[in-house]
Design brief:
By secondary structure, the chain is mainly α. The chain is built from 15 helices and 5 strands. It has 4 domains: 111 residues, Dna Topoisomerase Vi A Subunit, Chain: A, domain 2; 63 residues; 91 residues, no CATH class; 48 residues. Strand 1, helix 1 and strand 2 form a beta-alpha-beta unit. Helix 10 packs antiparallel against helix 12 and helix 14 runs antiparallel to helix 15. 28% of the residues are buried.
Length: 363
């Protein structure tokens, strides 16, 4: 079944598609709940299997989106939309372009895609705030879809101009973490639902692990990142921003400790992800770079010393030794004592500030 705007469109589709589909029209674009109930009364899947063929202009797309809002979660997961070249199928048939009418029906895409495009058009996508607002609004709206279709909708959103896939993933995880999404209907296929949940958990755990390493001073590239605040709200914001930076480095295989975000992006997709990570980085980086990643804050140094002492105690209890841990602990302790006595300029013992050509042999 193809739902069209008027009688002329019905006749045009009937002439072009013949027995391929059944064209119907509500005589306008304002489809009512009563009309939808009448269709559902004809067959349980009448609405879920229909194709929406409203005019391919701004008004037609807005009307299709209003219809999308009236459908159930199961229906909206399956309803498709045909984008006829030009404004409506009647014009195409009058011009003898019957094949294009048939092709538009055959190539109908999910109606959810139309709803997403209309939703995005309500925001200023040239500003970071507008993009984030658009992502939150769209992802909130599609939360009534079954889980599989939610994933597909998020993928389509990430592919739209101005959207950064990394930022979309961050918003999905953030909304999930704060339970901002509406309750989702149960997945019919529990095996598929369980697999999707596992994948989401793996992604979430991976990002958390990257942030934990930064927070506990285990990443040399993060030497200029300010420590996490003690207050829960500030710490959450800090972790969210570090997650954007660490995820960008992980995604694009950046290993440099000097250039936190690596070299310049090579394509539009990476550039959008780069801008997101850079915006986060600008709020976290210290004014002056440190000479060495071991130049930690007092609180960070205390945590690290505690962790290493614990590790060494375990090694001692097990009857083993670990020279790398021992050397690192000795170095940190030496620096800690030196900074207490010389808080400003002098380098700690063993910290060589000479260039490579001045470096003598080491023992």
């Amino acid at each position: 079944m193809v739902l069209l705007e008027g009688a002329a469109d019905v006749e045009a589709v009937r002439a072009a598609a013949r027995t391929m589909v059944v064209p119907l029209a509500p005589c306008g674009t304002a489809v009512t709940q009563e009309q939808l109930e009448q269709l559902r009364g004809l067959h349980p899947d009448a609405v879920a299997t229909m194709i929406v063929g409203f005019d391919n202009d701004a008004a037609g797309r807005q009307s299709a989106t209003r219809l999308w809002d009236k459908l159930t979660g199961a229906e909206v997961a399956n309803v498709r939309a045909a984008a006829f070249p030009g404004n409506d199928p009647g014009d195409l048939v009058q011009e003898g372009r019957h094949a294009e009418v048939v092709q538009a029906i055959t190539d109908a895409r999910p109606l959810t895609h139309t709803a997403i495009d209309v939703g995005l058009s309500q925001f200023d996508l040239d500003s970071p705030e507008g993009r984030v607002g658009a992502m939150r609004a769209v992802l909130g709206a599609v939360s009534r879809l079954p889980v599989q279709q939610q994933t597909a909708a998020a993928g389509y959103l990430a592919s739209r101009p101005g959207m950064d896939p990394l930022a979309v993933a961050e918003v999905v995880l953030d909304q999930r973490e704060h339970a901002q999404l509406a309750p989702r209907p149960p997945m019919l296929d529990e095996a598929v639902r369980a697999w999707i949940v596992r994948q989401a958990d793996l992604i979430d755990a991976r990002l958390d692990q990257l942030v934990d390493r930064v927070e506990h001073d285990q990443e040399p590239w993060a030497a200029r990142i300010v420590p996490a605040p003690e207050a829960p709200e500030g710490r959450h914001t800090w972790r969210r921003r570090v997650r954007a930076i660490a995820a960008y480095r992980d995604r694009y295989g950046i290993t440099s400790t000097d250039q936190i975000l690596g070299s310049a992006p090579t394509d539009d997709v990476q550039e959008r992800a780069y801008n997101t990570a850079r915006s986060a980085l600008e709020t976290l980086v210290t004014a002056e770079p440190r000479d060495d990643h071991l130049a930690l804050t007092a609180a960070a140094r205390t945590r690290r010393l505690s962790d290493m002492r614990h590790n060494l105690d375990q090694l001692t209890d097990a009857g083993t030794t670990d020279q790398s841990h021992l050397h690192e602990l000795q170095q940190l302790l030496a620096e800690h004592d030196h900074q207490r006595q010389n808080p400003v300029n002098e380098p700690p013992p063993g910290h060589d500030q000479s260039g490579p050509s001045d470096r003598g042999p080491t023992m």
